[in-house]
TrEMBL record:
Species the sequence originates in: Kordiimonas pumila
UniProt keyword list: DNA-binding
PANTHER family registered for this protein in UniProt: ACREF/ENVCD OPERON REPRESSOR-RELATED, ACREF_ENVCD OPERON REPRESSOR-RELATED
Stretch forming the signal peptide: none
Segments passing through the bilayer: none
Domain HTH tetR-type: 9-69
DNA-binding found in the keyword field: yes
Name of the molecule in the record: TetR/AcrR family transcriptional regulator
Record InterPro entries: Homeodomain-like_sf, HTH-type_Tx_Regulator, HTH_TetR
Amino acid sequence: MTAKKKIPKLDEETWVHSALRLLAKSNIEGVSIDVLARNFGVTKGSFYHHFQNRGELLKKMLDMWMANTTFGIITRINTSSRDPKQRLLDLLELPSRTAPEKLGWETELAIRSWARRDALALQTIIDVDRVRFDYTKRLFLDLEFAEEEATVRANMALAYLLGESLLSTSIHSTDVRKASARNLWQKLVTI
């Protein structure tokens, strides 16, 4: 008698998370219902139990990405410290603290690439960038920088974060990356 293959219990969140990982490793064209179902060892019927179509999955991917990589990070940073200087440092050190297996920045890059061809992905990028910018600017305003200066410094901080996150972790050690973040932080918080 052969043992039956155990089929995993899949919920909507598991499908979306798996689709985001697939996106990070390939591109939006690589996110297919067939591939996801095959990766889980289930039929496409399991997918349709949770989603009406691929479009609904894509929308939920963007929603989850925004919730985790923007609102989730802001919540964690705000919870970690009340001091705006420390929150800014925590934000700038984020790329050096993110484990490569999380595929965070690979996902970010894949979504930004997708947004070049898709209106919904583009709107999500616009919304994410606005929330991130407003949060970072608020940190500088809390440090009592004038509005215009807070705007410029927030832009510099976000440009650093995006650039640093896209650099290969093999170029510099975590220590060098943290030292870079601290060096920039010292310059940004100095009046």
